[in-house]
Amino acid sequence: MQVGAGTARRRMAQVALLAGVLAGCSQASDGETRATSSAPGATSGAPDTASEASAGSGAVAERGGTIGASGSACELPVTFGIAKDWKAEAVDAGAASDALLRQGPVTAACEVDAKPAGNIGFLRVWTGKPGDDDARTVLKAFVAAEDGASHAEYREVKAGGLNGVEVSYEYTSKLLDETKPERALAVTTARGPVVVHLGGLDAEEHRAMLPAFELAKRTLRTA
Asked: Could you give the CA distance from residue 108 to residue 124 in angstroms, rounded to a whole number?
């Protein structure tokens, strides 16, 4: 895809921002609304809002591997399939003590990079300590802790063999003064809660990577 010089400069700035540490943990307005259905519908064009992103085609990416089990790139409380050519890497346990790698009740545990497959973005996995909070409570706290998040829509979903809660929301970057859709899924396990989050460079990249998110959701199992 060819882009003009201005767009290229903007994307280079976004890539530089995306390559930095994960978003900091400062309080944001939830702006919650309840979605009426968990089934995604069809859309045309790149979505500009979280609501449009939540109405994706439901396509599922080709599976290229599985992470989560002992011996895999990321050992997690759950296992799930990752899209072909995406590369998974565990977040360093020492670095995970950094406050910038915590968001609400969970800590970054794994990052699955889409760049080898031709997209700019990540599927990130966050884990927390066992407790009494259900998936919705965990997910709401996760979104509330992301500065710039708004217009969150929550819905109950079946994530592979687990009951979960999914959210679509908007994220506005103060640095770039741009808004893009994001998606996250939370489940609870005996080893603690797990949040699977999909961002992306912009709305177009986010939509292109939704099939990888759907693959993760549909293949999710306890490890």
From this structure: 7
Pairing of strands 87-90, 106-113: antiparallel
**% of the chain residues with pLDDT over 70:** 72
Distances (CA, A) of 83 to 14, 53, 59, 62, 156: 23, 19, 12, 6, 24
Under 8 Å between Cβ of 136 and 165: yes
pTM flag (> 0.85): no
Q: What is the mean pLDDT of the chain?
A: 80
Beta strands in 10-139, from DSSP E residues, in sequence order: 33-34, 63-67, 78-83, 87-90, 102-103, 106-113, 122-127
Render pLDDT for 75-134 as a digit per residue (tens, 0 to 9).
999 999 999 999 999 998 676 557 779 999 999 999 999 999 999 999 999 999 999 999
Q: Please count the helices (runs of H) and the strands (runs of E) in the chain.
A: 4, 12
CA 32 to each of CA 15, 44, 170: distance values in angstroms, whole numbers, following the listed order = 29, 25, 11
Give which of 171, 159, 167 is closest to 199, Cα–Cα: 171
3-state helix vs strand vs coil in the chain, percent to 5: 25, 35, 40
